[in-house]
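Per your request, structure below.
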């Protein structure tokens, strides 16, 4: 019985998807080829509202944020396997851990659901993406 349990755990661990590494960095990704952007079908209104709240409350100084509106334009980098599976996401350092977390989670979902896709143009799997949205209440 113990052998069966150990084998089940080993198989389960082997079939679990690897976690995507999410980082922040201060760099220029303009030399990377662009991701194919298919739309904003999975852009979460709740996450947009939280980014708006962080920016307009003064909690965080986010790009494009004012006291009444946010017009966010965020460039990010993503690395994919040859099979097109996301393995790493790098956001610009915003000096706002909650904002970075919300934006990272939003982008992970959007990439997972196909809003952004690699084109196969880069052998090492790195691409540049841009997230744009405006929000006011």
């Amino acid at each position: 019985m113990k052998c069966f349990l150990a084998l089940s755990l080993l198989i389960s661990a082997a079939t679990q998807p690897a976690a995507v590494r999410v980082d922040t960095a201060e760099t220029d990704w303009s030399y990377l080829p662009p991701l194919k952007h298919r739309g904003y079908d999975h852009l979460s209104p709740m996450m947009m509202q939280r980014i708006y709240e962080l920016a307009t409350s003064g909690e965080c100084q986010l790009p494009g944020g004012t006291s009444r509106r946010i017009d966010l334009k965020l460039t990010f980098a993503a690395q994919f396997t040859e099979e097109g599976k996301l393995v790493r996401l790098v956001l610009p350092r915003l000096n706002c851990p909650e904002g970075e977390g919300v934006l990272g989670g939003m982008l992970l979902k959007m990439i997972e659901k196909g809003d952004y896709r690699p084109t196969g143009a880069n052998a090492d799997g790195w691409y540049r993406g841009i997230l744009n949205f405006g929000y006011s209440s």
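Helices lie at 2-15, 45-56, 97-112.

Regards,
D.
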